[in-house]
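Lab manual, section 2.4: Encoding a predicted structure.

Procedure: take the sequence of the chain (148 residues), apply the prediction step described in section 2.3, and record the output as structure tokens. A sample record is shown.
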Amino acid sequence: MCATSPQAQQWMLCPQCDLTVRLPAVPAGSRARCPRCHTQLLANWHEPRKRPTGYALAALFMLVLANLFPFIDMHVAGLSSRITLPEIPRVMVREDYRSLASLFLLFVQGIPAFCMVTILLLVNQIALPHPLRRGLARILFQLRSWGM
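Recorded output:
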């Protein structure tokens, strides 16, 4: 759908069943669905910035909570063992798994936090230079499947 003419933008190929569908005018708060497989083709939200902002803030809050509470807490036969997320890399470094500890920090802590902060910056129209904005968007789309 790279064409800019209004005539070309009225048609869309369904990503699930490959049916070519003429897109109707979608009022605010509605969705266009494929008539064959009912896959959502287009959505017109009332306030499109609120949903990603809410999800990103909730995810950052949950990441903070995940670091505060025990990750594993076991009580067996009078013995107890507890470990939190920040302690996992420390244990790995103590056992000479420094590279694994850095990968753990990167993929479990760093990339998800970076993605959520980037979403907040891009969606809420924070004043950023255009090249930085474009670079952050490219990085975000490349990293979206790499976080835990």
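Check your result against the sample. The radius of gyration is 22 Å.
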